[in-house]
Amino acid sequence: MMHLTKQLLAVIVLAITSNWALAKTAPECLKHLGGGFSDAQCFAGLQVDMVEENKLLYRKIRSKIPAGNRHAEVLDAYMAAQDDGVKFCELQRDAGAGWETNPDGSMYPALYQECVFDLRKVQNKFLTNLLTMANW
């Protein structure tokens, strides 16, 4: 049992200290877009980071809204609508693929990921501005 515990501890330490566990997508990837799969990876990685930032902004804003205030429900509805809106990015991707819902590994997944990234970027700007107003 002790040997297994040491192995598990070693794996955890390795995971925490390795680059792959701490790696985030570098915004630098936006400077090297070329229409292929790496574009999809770039946008997907950046939007994952932005989703986390948006959740943090949401929690900060939500904490400023008094208990029982209807604006808490409005904020919750906004966040849900933003999540629901992501599905509409499939339209752009599938239109470029002849309306096929399972496009190949060409540029079409990049169109979808760019659309999602753009939506999350707009959401981030809105939430950042909202938090600024809430802090006045």
UniProtKB/TrEMBL annotation:
Q: Signal sequence: where?
A: 1-23
Sorted keywords for this record are: Signal
**This protein's superkingdom?**
Bacteria
Protein name in the entry: DUF1311 domain-containing protein
**From what organism does this protein derive?**
Paraburkholderia domus
